[in-house]
Amino acid sequence: MNTAAQVKEILIDVLQLPSDMEFDEETALLGAIPEFDSMAVVTVLTAIEETFGIEIDDDEISADIFENFGALSEFVEEKV
């Protein structure tokens, strides 16, 4: 399974979204999905760290990463 597919699964699981929800590079996240609040951001980051075996430092996190699905997937891909 590729990185983007794994990130999609994390978002669906953490945000409790429909399993058939479609994500593409431009799918807006923060501010567009009501379930994606500040607590969800922390939970998503924790799930990403656990799934990919990476560590995300606080200074690496910005709103830009959560602007859309493509930005989040690219961030994770760079960390892996």
TrEMBL record:
SUPFAM superfamilies: ACP-like (SSF47336). InterPro entries: ACP-like_sf, PP-bd_ACP. Residues 1-80 form the Carrier domain. This is Phosphopantetheine-binding protein.
